[in-house]
Protein 1
Amino acid sequence: MQRYSVIDNNRKREIVLLRGSGCVYKKCKFCDYYLDSCKDEALNFALNKEVLDKVSGIYGDLEVINSGSVFELDKATLGYIKKICNERGIKTLHFEAHWLYRNRINELREQFKEFDVKMKLGLETFDYRLREDILCKGIAESNPQVISRGFDEVNLLLGLSGQSEESMEKDIRLALENFERVCVNIMCDNSTDVKPNKKVIGEFMQFIYPKYIDNDRVDILINNTDFGVGD
């Protein structure tokens, strides 16, 4: 498992994939990332410390992800993130959280108040029926302005059955209107029953990809390891 990488294109930053206690939601039908977890906080911290020690501060920008939400990282790891960022001159710090943690975001911002904290939401799509009836994302809200409240960045999941060129374009447009940055993830085959749709992915690559590949507010991951972390 690769857990540290440097992203040299678009928004330049370092990225670390840490390990937490596991996603507390675990109902997303498309996701098996929660398998990268451990209930032993001491073991998690030992692993996370080794990963965080690789951070150089080269761009002053660090993205922290784990298979769940930042709130599922142990206290020692959170403290070490702050220590490393202070030592290495990190100014901007990115975390991810599920929408169910939205009322704790201000608490996290206060904890890391010396940094410019950017919170990322795994929304996947603004299409309520697809998101909740099929993907079971657990975001019981349809208003984009309400969904984005407290979050700065968003993950989208494209390349699914039920999506089209028009719906994918709409998702990215709404994301750019309501968030500072967008990360477009193309669905990759995994152990779940939700599978990528090759026709939809083909439409994305032909019609959508060329429009946004050079947009500095948009990251596009064709493979889920394109940031250099994961396996």
Protein 2
Amino acid sequence: MNEFYLQKFAKHLRNLRKEKGLVQDDFDCKKISRSMYSHIELATSDVTLSKIKAIADILGVHPKDLFDFD
């Protein structure tokens, strides 16, 4: 993935998480680990579709909303 978009995606995730009043520990479940979520939010790891779905479910948003960043 392009580093520019990975960084923008990560920043958008961090902002969404904070808007929802969640902490990274809230992402520690059988679909995604807190560690994996942390790597995604820090833009040090690429993300799979299954992880995108898990993140969207936890945030209570549609998966396409995770890509609504400028």
Protein 3
Amino acid sequence: MHELGYAIEIIRTLEDFMETEHLSVIKEVTLTVGEATGIVPRFMMECWPAAIADSDKIKDCELKIKEVKAFGECHNCDKQFPVAENKRICPFCGSEDYDMVTGYEFEISEIKGH
């Protein structure tokens, strides 16, 4: 489960942010996670309590996750389509030649603290 490693890195980033922004507590953090990252939001949510347990300033921080569906844009017909549901094949023209438009996002998109 690589989600625990990501959770620990997020906590380090939040602690650095707290120091830079002179915050005493972070109550909520929202992650944006793309479908194509391989990160399983449910696993991230499950390991979050263990990851924050040793941090005094983040130990009560609630984790929220916004999931972003993976979409590709076909080079052949220029239409966008959901990649995973269509097994990486454009449903409009049958091409396998596309660029990912969304789905690789992994970022802290919102922090609530004081």
Protein 4
Amino acid sequence: MSKIKVVHYINQFFANIGGEEKADYPAEKRPGEVVGPGMAFNAAFGDEAEIIGTIVCGDTYFNENVDKATADILEMVKEMQPDLFIAGPAFNAGRYGVACGTIASAVQEKLGIPSLTGMYIENPGVDMFASKVYMISTKNSAAGMRDAVKKMAPLALKLAKGEAIGASCEEGYIPNGVRVNFFEEERGSKRAVDMLLKKLAGKAYTTEYPMPAFDRVAPNPAVKDLSKAKIALVTSGGIVPKGNPDHIESSSASKFGEYDITGVTDLTADTYETAHGGYDPVYANADADRVLPVDVMRDLEKEGVIGELHNKYYATVGNGTAVASAKAYAAEIAKRLIADGVDAVILTST
């Protein structure tokens, strides 16, 4: 019995080509090569499947050349004629997740080859492609590679063999909106009462219809007199002093920066830039005031519309950054702003 033939897609980082400085690496086909996480997949497949080739593409290159990159990669996959296509896993890397979702869904739709990817639930690729391609739920970072491969390999083999795929809670993939009728052993009224009794007793239970969790924040009262208010600027658009002194990551930021703008009236191309990945930085780098409007705030300060502009601003990168991380940064930034007597904040993004 011949083995299932698999083609694996990874980015420049997992191909050991480089990090952000090599993110513009164009799509490349490597027939017969098993690279990076592909070795873990091959081990997990055992005698049932094997990777017959790897496709590598830089995250920036793919996202800035989506149509060309997709067409090129589809042709590469077609030439290798696999039975199965795997992309990633991408974990919480936003651009990588979008690339994995894009190409996996394209391979499945255009070439009719079953495809699978994996990423963290907060990766932007989830919202874009979870309904189009099977997507294993992974941990936040590559530290969860072993767990991801352990869940992806069995589902990949099922897809390649055309076997029935079970519910998301059984197979480990992110819910894709597909509902399937089946018969439960117990009627709904009994299951509902059992859940209620467990809830009242403080015992663990699993709902059959999880509701979305919305983070509701009560708005503060409006500023009564802007002409006497101290206003601060905060941005998730990654505007930093030239050279990015705090080395804030272009995606999945692990920190935020605090920067003094005492006496600064204009963010010039010589003094400020954006550290944000995932969008074309040309316009932000040419004039960072487009993302962080220091120039306009100084005008309002001179005109007496606001009392004063706070002498510090705070910046991080929103691209692929986990909600939990963003909340932690916000709590710390808010603490500092309150200590400095700031009355209101203008939050900007990309």
